[in-house]
Amino acid sequence: MKHHTIDIENVNIHYVEAGSGSGTNLPRQTIVFLHGFPEYWGTWHAQLDYFADHYRVIAPDLPGYNLSDKPEDPSFYQVPKLIKFIAKFIQGVAPQEKIILVAHDWGGVIAWPIAAFFPQLIDKLIILNAAHPSIFTREMINNAQQRQKSEYIHELIAPNGVEKLSDNNYQYLKDTVFVGMREGTLSETQCKAYEDVWAQSGAINGMLQYYRSMPQLAPSEKVSVAGNGPVVAATQMKIPNIRITCPTLLLWGEQDQAFVKENTDGVEKYVPDLRIKRFPDASHWLQHELPNEVNLEIENFLHNY
Fold first, then answer.
1. pTM over the 0.85 mark
2. Which of 70, 74, 159, 291 has its CA 20 to 30 A from that of 266?
């Protein structure tokens, strides 16, 4: 695993790379992995190890996270800008080919529209527990349970968000990630690595910038954050038209803490070339809990379509 940085619009992005195929005459197709909140490139360790045998694998720290730069301008984190930025990153690391894009959580928020608006960059799309933007907005409008599951975002965008996540050696994040996973999923070494990631200067604030800039968050029934976030009444929300033509695999742990299961219903309307694999007993942290099953599903998809 080699560590690199690349300058994209004067923002340095750290990424790891393996399986470049040096010493062989056959170029390897590139898989780019995008992590979510509150993680880093290491969330994909099981996938990187597995697919490096036959692919060139790349996993960045998203801007604002870990060893990547953390722009202070909140407007940088607006989703349309993030889409264009990550598209430029993909072009920077794989300029001569279409890539396979794999994404989870916030990485998926970015990946879905990249595949829609930059189809020339993406050969295949694989999403783990990240709702399609059109479907998620539909559920936010119509599904009270989804609005309830999204209540936690109001805690993150509150004025004391950085302090809340940092207090007591990042206990809030530990409760969100470690407690949310099946017991024993992460080793002590892996847990310590997350603490080091969160301790990077400016990282907690960088992570929260994504939520502060997210589109169309329903009002909270519990937390008052007037004027401090992207809050809009559900009746005023607009469903975006995010249509994707490349072959797409959606892997979904049905015990997701952040998304209702209905987020997998009707995705075909926007993604006609779609396969969905549901894991009834897995949570939001699918790639951690079931790494072997995830790897096999991805491998079968890549080989058969």
1. yes
2. 291
